[in-house]
Automatic annotation (TrEMBL):
<dbReference type="Pfam" id="PF18962">
    <property type="entry name" value="Por_Secre_tail"/>
</dbReference>
<keyword id="KW-0732">Signal</keyword>
<feature type="signal peptide">
    <location>
        <begin position="1"/>
        <end position="21"/>
    </location>
</feature>
<dbReference type="InterPro" id="IPR026444">
    <property type="entry name" value="Secre_tail"/>
</dbReference>
<feature type="domain" description="Secretion system C-terminal sorting">
    <location>
        <begin position="428"/>
        <end position="493"/>
    </location>
</feature>
<protein>
    <submittedName>
        <fullName>Por secretion system C-terminal sorting domain-containing protein</fullName>
    </submittedName>
</protein>
Amino acid sequence: MKKLYLLLILCACLCGLQATAQNWRPFRPNGDVHAFRGASADTILTLRLDSAGVSGADSVYYFNRIMRRATSFSWQKSPNNQFGQQMRYNVAQRTYVLLWNGGTSGPFVLDRWIVLKPFAPVGTTWTSLDIDIGMTTTLVSRGTALIDGVPDSIVTFRVGNPSGLNVVLSKNYGLVSAPRNLLVYSPRASMLTLARRPAPAGLSYYNPLMLLDLQPGDELGYEQEPIMMSSFPCYQGWLLRKVLARQVTNDSIIYTFRQQSKMAYSNAPGCPGLGTTVSPVTTVRLAASRRTGRWAGNLQAAYQVLPINTDLLAYEYRPQQPGTNSMMMGHPVVPTRAGGSCGGPALLQQEMLYGNPASGQYTYVPGIDAAGWKQLVAEGVGPVAQYEHTLTYSRRTINGVVQTCGVRTDFATLLPVKAARAAATFQLYPNPAAETATLTLPAPARASTAIRVLDNLGRAVLRQQLAIGQSTATLALQRLPGGLYIVEVQAAGEAPQQLRLQH
């Protein structure tokens, strides 16, 4: 029994020792997003550990892969994030290592890594590596500091002696500052500093409740113009979206919208035709995870100005349509990035890249003209610019107060309210009707108008046409069997209207 007690005490001590060691880990292996400033003015780089493994006595954690610049116009896949490929932890030595090339480079491959020993006594020295040159690393001090407004214990290491670079590690929040790309040997190394405490993506800059914060009854209106602009654009479009419902649970947010769009074609030289089309009213439903920040729903339906891949971290990429070798890439967080007139600064940006095998080394480039898909996302309203659409009108409830941006004039005929639809509907009389029924429009037809009488199977059993300026028509019903019919009236470029007719 005495041996059993000793064994239990030893296990408890070892478990406590391992848990304590994990408190000082530079990056959390649970998928939390770490954010750093310092790459350039007002730019925030985000990254995370997204996979793990074991190598000998080390636990190995891999950073998410990113795109890096190949040229001023092209990108290339890279396993190296801002602090290398991986983080390793040796339990026995209670030591963390950030490795640029994974620690497996050959004798002619330059590598670099930073060794961090947060449990060593102050003044202890050891060796890190920069391009195959040993760099003295010293634990120079312990203390406390405010990390995003919260006090925490920190340790400070100096890499390089005597005027090296300082690396700061927080007990609970990980790496606080270190040189970008682990360039500890370069006097021009860019120092990255923690921008906020680590958190799940859905609770950080990619929080869906922050990016799209709408209430039932709120409206968003988007104007569409050709991405290939000319002196005579072929078309102009408008899309109006209204929130029907919003549901927030512990792990998700769910929106239901009604939306309708209109397209006006100019018949300019080289354009397909002249006229206006109005889509039917449709319902859109989408949801997002409050942990990962990722949206799901009918997002791909002609890219309906809904949040697409807004959870991508800085330079993180994600394959898109199979067989096209296209990648969606996230850009860094920029709180002051120019957005839209009705959305404020665009905190996030995503961009489509396309494979370019002809470049000698496989690279990815942004699309040009019709393939140039980009998205800007602002807090509260979501996408303020997406491909050909720009947010130009919003009506939102903020803290119980309705606030309007832009004008609704261009969207006035879209999503008519029930009273307006009733007022605009044609009339039929008599109803029921025996031999004929008279159809009357609320105003003379402004365009060629089609009339159809549909049976209970949806088949058109009678067709007529109203000319421009005509407001009445007589429907001959003598040859139709008795029953219930639907009379449908549709003016060119407008949604159809229907009434029941008993014969």
